[in-house]
């Protein structure tokens, strides 16, 4: 199921935060939103999920206008993982079960419990099942958040800085997990990231935001040093190591 964004604009007070953003996120692909702090990456995610109401423009979910859908309907199609997840004193199993909320009534059905069990088994989280969130490491907690999104059984996954505050090992584990889930379940994923090298390693398509607008888009083969320089304000080289792109800043202070 595609997520189609058409000329989306968002204002806060008199300030224009997002201006004429258009793109399509497709199943089986990770679309990465890139840009410096304060450019509107998180705001864009929240507009896609209708947590914020765009000033103009539209968001379509599988051809349906999201503005005409109730929040519960949207939650059946879009799972959202925020950058800062609340750590209530509940177990991982109960946290993942919350992902079933758009599909169940007042109480979980046997089907809901079985789906949570299946997700826990699929992601290898059995050892964490009864562990309280308040006793988890950052990497463990992020895995639980991803599991909750997967239990939600949506077509679209939105994630805000999914590897924020994680060490290198856990960053790679989480991004490998996300890419595996997106490709295996044919989800359309849109995520925000700061780490350019991690983004280019795990993403499929890239959106570069600048001054609230969409400065450039492209696949891994279309990203250029100029795109990065224009958006981040510094010159870089894109090298390749073992077939993987590597963004290297150019230290102009040492130039001859």
Rg computed from alpha carbons, rounded to a whole number of angstroms: 19 Å
End-to-end distance, in Å?
52 Å
Instruction: Examine the coordinates and then state which fold CATH places here, giving the name of the CATH topology.
Output: Rossmann fold
Number of strands: 12
**Helix share bin:** 25-40%
Are there runs of 5+ residues with pLDDT below 50, and where? none
Q: For the residues shown, what is the average pLDDT?
A: 92
Show the helix and strand layout.
Elements: E1 3-12, E2 15-25, E3 29-34, H1 41-48, E4 56-61, E5 64-65, H2 71-75, E6 78-81, H3 92-97, H4 110-123, H5 138-151, E7 156-160, H6 168-185, E8 188-192, H7 196-202, E9 205-210, E10 213-219, H8 225-232, E11 236-241, E12 244-249
Parallel strand pairs: 3-8, 3-9, 6-7, 7-8
Antiparallel strand pairs: 1-2, 1-4, 4-5, 9-10, 11-12
In short, what is this structure?
This protein has 256 residues and is an alpha/beta fold.
How would you describe what is shown here?
This protein has 8 helices and 12 strands. The protein has helices at 41-48, 71-75, 92-97, 110-123, 138-151, 168-185, 196-202, 225-232; strands spanning 3-12, 15-25, 29-34, 56-61, 64-65, 78-81, 156-160, 188-192, 205-210, 213-219, 236-241, 244-249. The protein has a 6-stranded mixed beta sheet, sandwiched between helices. The protein has one domain (3-87, 153-254): P-loop containing nucleotide triphosphate hydrolases (Rossmann fold), CATH 3.40.50. The longest helix has 18 residues, at 168-185. It has 256 residues and is α/β, with parallel strands linked by helices. The termini are far apart. A hairpin with a 2-residue loop joins strand 1 (3-12) and strand 2. It is globular. The mean pLDDT is 92.
């Amino acid at each position: 199921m595609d997520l189609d964004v058409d000329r989306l604009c968002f204002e806060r007070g008199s300030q224009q935060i997002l201006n004429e953003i258009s793109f399509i996120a497709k199943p089986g692909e990770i679309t990465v939103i890139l840009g410096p702090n304060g450019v509107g990456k998180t705001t864009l995610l929240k507009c896609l999920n209708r947590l914020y109401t765009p000033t103009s423009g539209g968001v379509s979910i599988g051809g349906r206008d999201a503005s005409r859908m109730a929040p519960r309907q949207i939650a059946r199609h879009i799972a959202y993982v925020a950058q800062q997840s609340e750590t209530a004193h509940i177990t991982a199993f109960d946290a993942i079960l919350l992902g079933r909320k758009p599909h169940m009534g007042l109480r979980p059905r046997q089907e809901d419990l079985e789906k949570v069990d299946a997700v826990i088994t699929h992601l290898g989280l059995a050892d964490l099942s009864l562990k309280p969130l308040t006793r988890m490491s950052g990497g463990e907690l992020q895995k639980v958040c991803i599991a909750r999104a997967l239990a939600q059984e949506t077509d679209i996954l939105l994630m805000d800085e999914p590897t924020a505050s994680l060490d290198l090992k856990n960053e790679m584990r989480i991004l490998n997990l996300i890419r595996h889930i997106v490709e295996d379940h044919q989800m359309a994923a849109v995520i925000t990231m700061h780490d350019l090298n991690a983004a280019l390693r795990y993403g499929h398509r890239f959106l570069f935001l600048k001054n609230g607008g969409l400065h450039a888009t492209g696949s891994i083969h279309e990203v250029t040093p100029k795109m990065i320089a224009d958006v981040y304000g510094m010159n870089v080289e894109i090298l390749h190591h073992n077939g993987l792109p590597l963004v290297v800043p150019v230290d102009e202070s040492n130039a001859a």
